[in-house]
Design a protein that fits this description.
This is DNA alkylation repair protein. It comes from Fodinisporobacter ferrooxydans. By secondary structure, this protein is α+β, with helices and mostly antiparallel strands. It has one domain. The chain contains one helix and five strands; from the N terminus they run βββββα. The protein has a three-stranded antiparallel beta sheet with strand order 1-4-5. The protein has a two-stranded antiparallel ribbon with strand order 2-3. The chain is elongated, with a radius of gyration of 17 Å. The chain binds zinc ion. The site of zinc ion has 8 residues, from loops.
Length: about 80
Amino acid sequence: MQPYACPSCRNKSRFYIMEQSPVSVKLHPQTGELVEYISAGDPLQQPYRGEMRRIQCAVCGVTDGAHVFAKTAERLK
Ligand SMILES: [Zn+2]
């Protein structure tokens, strides 16, 4: 872990940590039904580029990527 600070209210101790676990799927375009899980090696599937961890401030409710909270903690040192 590393120090986090809220970019809005500067809270440094109360957070929700949301670990992302992206699942690569193919859905039926009309019904939304899950057709299959797509393997990481599928050449038509872009790799996931989102954040692996998001943070919500448990004081003011601001939500952003963990890097924003980590950078804010650096800045407020
Ligand atoms: Zn906050």
